[in-house]
Design a protein that fits this description.
6 helices; 3 strands; mainly alpha
Amino acid sequence: MASRSARIAIACWIVTTLASSASANPFEWIWRVPQKVVSDIARDTKRRNCWPEPFVQPDRQATREPFGTMIEHGWRQQNLIAGYHFSEDGAGLNQAGDHKVRWILFEAPPQHRTIYVQVADDPQVTASRIDAVRLLAVQLSPHGDLPMVVATHIQPRGWPAEWVDSVGRKFSEATPAPVLPESGDSSSF
């Protein structure tokens, strides 16, 4: 008896809940649920059928992003005015530094004409290095297209010229003199 009255109470509650909804048809949800399931299945099927396309462009972009960073780091290294580009006192540009600044101003692509000056141990020397580079840039660019001159902590890549020269000389000294074979033996051909 108690279970029958519980069933009647649940049924009344369901009918009351459905009747209190704003829709004109209290049983509309019965038809809406299967349609939603069908539309979800159709949407999922379409997604699966076009699977790689929505993800190709983000993957390509994620693959290309490091190359832009590498290019910027390469130009920063290329446009570095290092300690050996300055005179012995560390402030004024030497001939190699002068040529390097000229190359950056006249031959580097315009979007990559930022000049990076290696920081010295003394902040005053760094400031005088930057001033020397700016002064030369002003002298070479009278039309007002001055590049940015930025201090940086990156180290130059490469080896000292003396070391490269000594390796080249040792290689030349160790190379045997070219000698033609003796002409007496003609059967070797």
